[in-house]
Amino acid sequence: MELRHLRYFVAVAEERHFGRAAERLHVTQSTLSTQVQALEREVGGPLLRRTSRRVELTEAGELLLTHARHTLAHAAHSLHVARQSIQGKTGLVRIGFSGVAVLQGHLIADMHAFHQANPATELTLTELPPAAQVTAVRDGTLDVGYCPRLGLGDTDGLALRPRAAATPLSVALRHDHELAAASALSVADLAHWDLVIYATREEEGQVLAQLGPETDRPRSRVHTVTGTLAALTFAAAGMGVAVVPASVNRIDLPDITYRRLTITSGPDLLIISRTDELSGPVRAFLSHGGKAEPRPPLET
């Protein structure tokens, strides 16, 4: 038995007339009659009593009509749900992010645009450093990552979409720090001070190399942190100078001050996803961000 048989039967049962039911279904009357007869053979008995003027339902036909309507409605709903999922209208998108993506406003803008178009789709957020986002997207615990191109590690099998151009960097430091007297700082100025950077311990050397060779000079300590507030806390406590995206400057914390870092530019903001993504909601979310990057990530 196919859904087509049930649709034909319900049309005849509701119209009480083969001719009108055939017009409603846009099929010939002979085709309709053949399909209803096939259904009757399937159930093993008559469902309709045919007269010269109208069609009446047998007791079995009355019972089947109720269940057939429910079956067709459920099938239509299932099809609708599948279509909604493919189009990104329902489902779940798990997003990882670095603080800079929020402070620059790009993640907020993308989430807002997506939610306006797909209010039934659930979005979840997890703050993670770049390399951890790469790992989570690859192993399937996250769907999308927003992070700067800094300390990414191995990105094979992932799509990188540029979301924003390179952003300037700042140095966050305690207000009474010796370097706070300058209006701007170079990487060389930071060479002998304790440094705070966004990285895991394994990524430390990679991030320092990307900032510039001066950051590899001997120093007493490098603090590696995985979040913006942690970096600012170390800096405000006088335990190091933190290299942060300039957008962090809008965070006003006690005892903290910011100075421009005279480096050519900071890292650009990327959206990370799987290259073979099949999820409709995730693909729909990605359509609100950048285009897939045609070139590989920068070598470090």
In short:
Helix 1 crosses helix 3, helix 1 (3-15) packs across helix 4 and helix 2 packs across helix 3. Helix content is 38%, strand content 22%. It has helices spanning 3-15, 18-25, 29-43, 59-86, 99-103, 106-117, 130-139, 204-211, 228-236, 280-286; strands at residues 48-50, 55-57, 91-97, 121-127, 144-148, 158-164, 169-174, 184-185, 195-198, 222-225, 241-245, 256-261, 269-274.
Structural features, described:
InterPro entries: LysR_HTH_N, LysR_subst-bd, WH-like_DNA-bd_sf, WH_DNA-bd_sf. Keywords: DNA-binding, Transcription, Transcription regulation. This is LysR family transcriptional regulator. With 300 residues, this protein is an alpha/beta fold. The chain is built from ten helices and 13 strands. The chain has helices at residues 3-15, 18-25, 29-43, 59-86, 99-103, 106-117, 130-139, 204-211, 228-236, 280-286; strands at residues 48-50, 55-57, 91-97, 121-127, 144-148, 158-164, 169-174, 184-185, 195-198, 222-225, 241-245, 256-261, 269-274. A six-stranded mixed beta sheet has the order 8-12-7-11-9-10, with helices on both faces. Strands 4-3-5-13-6 form a five-stranded mixed beta sheet, sandwiched between helices. A two-stranded antiparallel ribbon has the order 1-2. The protein is rod-shaped. The two termini are 62 Å apart.
